[in-house]
Amino acid sequence: MKPAVNTNARLPTISIVIPVYNEIKSIEKFINNFFSIAEDVDQVVIVDGMSSDGTYDKLKSMLAARPDNHHICLLQSEPGRARQMNVGAEKCSGDAIVFLHVDTTLPGDGIALIQEKLNDGAYWGRFDVRLDAEPVMYRVIETMMNWRSACTSIVTGDQAIFIRTDVFKMIGGFPVIPLMEDIAISDRLKTVAAAKRIKSRVLTSARRWQAQGVWSTILLMSVFRLGYWFGIKPERLARWYYKTS
User: 96 in helix, strand or coil?
Assistant: First the structure.
């Protein structure tokens, strides 16, 4: 049964959940970017997956130094992005939850755009994406990602997924699997409604494509998605993925 649409005219409250793991090299840049939009939300839950590189301690000290950190909660959980996001969601009190990757930046009006979609009756949705690299091939990748998601309602985590909290609980949260958790939750959410698209773009890191090569990454991800659709267990796919990463 689909949940009732919230027709209340007030602005929905928003919680953000951010999973992090071994991000010591980029965490300072992330925190500085993040605080430009953090004041627009009611609650932020950062969940470290037992990082081994000092990420948690760095986050703790940086947040302690900020006077505007009263609505930010820093937690630790067992590693695994799906598990971390579920742990974070348990602490959320907002009407909706935004699941934000550490290397993805919302547009300045991103929270207002989410609230607008929610008040228009959205159950869940995502942003279009722009990669932070200049070569034209990255524009092609972005276009294909955004087109694929618009056509299929299959959403990837770097598109800043937002979900009404009651819907997230109703579908049981993220499946606790080591890979493809964003694809798996998209499948669950599609039984409720199609994803609502926000055409404003989040800026996300192209580091995966840069590290592994554009064509190699495209081929690798296509193979893993096909494997997932054909029923290969995510645990087995994860073993293959981390051997090639």
Answer: strand
